[in-house]
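Weekly puzzle thread! Below is a chain. First person to post its structure in C-alpha cell form gets bragging rights.
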Amino acid sequence: MLTFNAIDVETANADRASICQIGIVHVAEGEIVDQWKTLVNPEDWFDAMNVSIHGIDEADVEHSPTMPQIRNELRRRLRGSILVSHTSFDRTAFERAMRKYDLEQLQVRWLDSAKVVRRAWPDSYATRGYGLASVAHDLEITFEHHDALEDARAVAEIVLRACRATDSDIEDLLRRVELPISSQGLIARRTKAKALPASREPNEHGPLFEENEVCLFTGQLSIERSRAADVAAYAGCRVVNHASNRVTRLIVGKQDAIRLKGYDKSSKHRSIEKLIANGADIEICSEEDWIAVLKIAFPEEDLAQRLNELDTHMAPLKARLEERKNRRRVTHVKRRLLHSALSNLKKGWCKGAMARDENGHPVEKRSKNASSWSLDGAILSGDVSSEGDGETVSRGIMEANRAVAEVLLQLGKLTSTENDSLASVNDHKLSSQHEAVSVLKSAVQQVRLERLEVERELSQAENEHRSKGKQRGVSSTMVELFDRL
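Winning reply:
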C-alpha cells in the first residue's frame, strides 16, 4: 500500500507553535492525487530571520484563518492517515500549536522521512546529509525550498523513491524506522531476502504431486510469499523463482503500480505470456483461483482432521523435547561437579579425614562458594547457579555426589544405608588416592558418553518437533486461506 499524506509547515518565529503556513500532499496508490496549501495567522510576532527564510510576514497572514478555524479541514484531510514529515519539526509544531489553542491532537500515524532516508540509503545518509534539500538534490527532485506545499511535495517524492528503491510499501517503512540503522540498510535487507529463494521441492505425498505442477508466484499475495510457497510444496507442487518452460501455473497477486515501472503487468507475468504465445502450456490464475484448487485437493473435513492429529502428536513431542533439554542440563551440572571433585582429589584434598566438631563427631565441610556439601574432603564446589532451575541443579548435584560416594564405597571408606543415601564416612584416611582418581575418571567418562547420547536424542526430538510444527503451520495457513475464499 502506498497511500499517505505528506506535510510541511513554516513558522513565524522560534516558537514552533507559531505556524504561519501549511502544505499537504495526498498520495494514493503511489500517485500524488491532491495538494492543499494555506497561510495561517499564528497570532504571534514574526522574526526577521524566519521571514528571510520563507518570505512570509505579518501583512501576508493578516486576513488568514487561525489554527482553530482550519482545524476541521485538517481533520477531514488527515484523520486516521499516515502522515509523513521530514524530521520531527512539523510534528512538534502541530503538537505545540494544538496545545496552544487547547485543540485535539491530530489523529494520525506519523512517519519521519529523514529516518526513512537514513535506512534506505545508509551509505550516503546514515549519519549526515539527510536534510530535505540535500536528499532532494541527490535524487534530482526540483522544488522551491521553504514553501510549505513544495516541501511537502518533495517529502512525498522522497518517500516514493525510498519505497521503490527498497521494494517496500508505507507499512514496511513504518516498521523499519523503529529498528536500528544497519550497515546495509533496507536495500541490503531486501536484497538478502531476495537471495533466499522461494523455491521449494514438492511433497511426494501431496495430492497434487502426480500432476507435476510447477508454480510461480508474482505480485503481492494475501500471505507472505514464503508461506504461500510452503503451502504449494506441501500440496505436492514444485515452486520456482523464475519464468521458464517448466512452469505450469502462474499465480498472480495484487500488483503494485510503483514496482511495475510503467507496465500494467509484472516482468514474470509478461515473460509467461511470451512463453504462452510461443506454445507453452501454462495456466495463469489469480490467488483466489489457486486457493480454490487447494480447497478441492484438501477437503475441509480432512484438513480439520489433520490439524487435530497434529495437535495430538505435538503435545507429547513437546513434553519429550522439554524432558531431553532438562536431562541435558542435569548431565552438564553433573559433569562439572565430577570434574570439580576429580580436581580436588588430584590436589590431594581427599587425603585428610573428615573435619570433626568439638565433640569429635564428623561434620560437613562447605567451601565458601560451594554449591554442594563435601564428602571426606572431596569438595564438589563451583558456581552452578546459572545452569538451570533449582530442581535441575539439585538433580545434578545428587547424581554427582552419588558418583563420588561410589568411589569411596569401592575403596571401603563409605557405608551405605538401606535408602542408598550418603550415610557415613569411616574415620580414617583414603588408602589410595590414585585408585580414587582412576574410579572418578571412569565416572567422568561415563557422564560424557551419557551427555553425547542425550544430545543425540535431543537433536532427534527437535527435528521431529520442527517437522510436525511446520506441517501444522502449513495446514493452519490453508485453513486461513480457505476462510478468506
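Puzzle host: Confirmed. Bonus trivia for everyone else. The chain has a mean pLDDT of 74.
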